[in-house]
Amino acid sequence: MRATRSGFVGVQPNSWTTATTAHNATLRTRATRVEVAATGAKLPEGRKLRVAVIGGGPSGACAAETLAKGGVETYLIERKLDNCKPCGGAIPLCMVDEFDLPTDIIDRKVTKMKMISPSNREVDVGKTLSEKEYIGMCRREVMDDFLRKRADAMGATVVNGLMTKLDLPTSKDAPYVVHYSDYSDKSSKVGKPSTLEVDVVIGADGANSRVAKAIDAGEYDYAIAFQERIRIPDDKMEYYKNLAEMYVGDDVSPDFYGWVFPKYDHVAVGTGTVVNKTAIKDYQAATRARSSKRCEGGKIIRVEAHPIPEHPRPRRVKERATLVGDAAGYVTKCSGEGIYFAAKSGRMCAEAIVEKSRQGQYMVEEADLRTYLDKWDKKYWATYKVLDILQKVFYRSNPAREAFVEMCDDDYVQKMTFDSYLYKTVVPGNPMDDLKLAVNTIGSLVRSNALRKAAAAKA
Questions:
Q1: Is the dihedral of CA 115, 118, 122, 127 positive or negative?
Q2: Helical segments of 301-410, H only
Q3: 372 CB-near residues (< 8 Å, 6+ apart)
Q4: Looking at residue 419, what is its pLDDT?
Q5: Which residues face 243 on adjacent strands?
């Protein structure tokens, strides 16, 4: 099968009718024509800009939805339409409203967290949350499916396929040729070799992005995340109904944390590491051991592992191809958060394309795609830098982790942390409280260094 500029043969979009009226109105507002100077040539009458989005996770689905609603001819290519990415599945409260997510895709509304230190000191976090505030816990297979179906309802063509190769343009106006295996025929396990010609390619295909390789985007450090989904007895599940746990210590990870996050009818227990990937199963066993009291009697129903980027790629755009989500490297250090930033980057990229192409009427160029990167870096660079520093300071040794957990017991720290996380804004603090926090932080670090030196002397 071959998709040409005259039409995409053999692939029909699925119908999906549950997109809400309010969401449609919101997108219509976002897609309102904005008269900007188009840098590319006007496309022939009757032909729209054609964009292939490779990867159907939050970044790809949100990009495809925004593009399709904005008048761009959009193809969303995803191999695993029932994908279960190993992911904690936590989303901030602001994402629910900003991306019009229905509450029925949220398994649990977490209002309490336990931070558990290397010495098993437990600190309850969440004391400053209001009755309406929570962290949403989702299963990725549920949320991703919802986002893809919504993109389909907005007019994107969703293709059950795996990109195998990307041919770059041979001239300024030549198309990209996407080679992929089409799995739309459910009766066959072998994909049908197919091609698609497009004007723009968005790589939303994860940490092992083939689009990134095709445009020579460069390598980056990555973590390995390992997670087990465990079905535990009802009485223990009751304990986790609105509570999540985070474990820190050399035993669970030398540079990250272990977690127990509640889902609909099970818990997700996992950990991750960058510096010692070969020992990931040992760290997972330690996480299981630390949480065994509350997860005892559970049955493992799924085991998952996946790479997670540690920093943005050296190159995120080349000519008319660009990267979003994990493919671009948009996962924060310290917290490991990626879902919101994936969805946000996909939307911001698509909005830039819609605007610069004047709703799909003009060709776009590299400079147009760079406007998305400029806005992204301006908005989020500081967030990534601060979390990078925090990880280097507080995840370097067990004494530092003890200090980190100790800090989390402070109400002011909790309020500042949750407000920043839930609403993705830099929250202005009270000067006196900021000074007190600085003094307490220094004190905690001094104690942690003393403990680290004492431990080293004994060794």
A1: negative
A2: 325-328, 339-356, 366-394, 398-407
A3: 322, 345, 348, 349, 351, 352, 353
A4: 87
A5: 112
The β-bridge partners of 231 are 299
**Length of the chain, please?**
459
Looking only at the bridges linking them, the beta strands covering 112-116 and 122-125 are antiparallel
- Asked if residues 193 and 66 have their Cβ atoms less than 8 Å apart, the reply is no
Q: Is the pTM of this model over 0.70?
A: yes
What is the DSSP secondary structure assignment for residue 42, as one 8-state letter?
A: B
Distance CA 330, CA 212 (A): 14
The pLDDT value recorded for residue 450 is 67
Angle between the N-to-C axes of helices 140-153 and 58-69, in degrees from 0 to 180, rounded to the nearest 10 = 10
Pairing relationship of beta strands 90-91 and 135-137 according to DSSP bridges: antiparallel
Instruction: Give the N- to C-terminal CA distance of the chain in Å, as an integer.
Output: 66
Do 228 and 269 form a contact (C-beta atoms < 8 A)?
yes
Flag whether pLDDT at 137 surpasses 50: yes
Cross-strand pairs, 317? 322
Q: Using one digit for the tens of pLDDT, what is the confidence trace for 380-427?
A: 998 888 888 888 888 889 989 998 998 899 888 898 888 888 998 766
Please give the structure tokens belonging to residue 315. Answer: 């190159």
For residues 134 and 32, which has the higher predicted lDDT (pLDDT)?
A: 134
| Percent composition of the chain: helix, strand, coil (DSSP 3-state, to 5) | 40, 25, 40
Gyration radius from the chain CA atoms: 23
Look at strands 108-110 and 2-4 and give their pairing: unpaired
pLDDT value at position 281? Answer: 97
Query: What angle do the packed helices 398-407 and 431-458 form, to 10 degrees?
Result: 150
Closest CA to 311 of 222, 425, 395, 396: 222
Choose among 63, 239, 56: nearest CA to 141: 56
* C-alpha–C-alpha distance, residues 345 and 343, integer Å: 6
Distance CA(394)–CA(281), nearest Å, equals 23
Query: H-helix or E-strand containing 299?
Result: strand 299-309
- Model pLDDT for residues 228-258, shown as the tens digit of each residue: 999 999 999 999 999 999 999 999 999 999 9
User: For residue 413, what are its two tokens?
Assistant: 């720290």
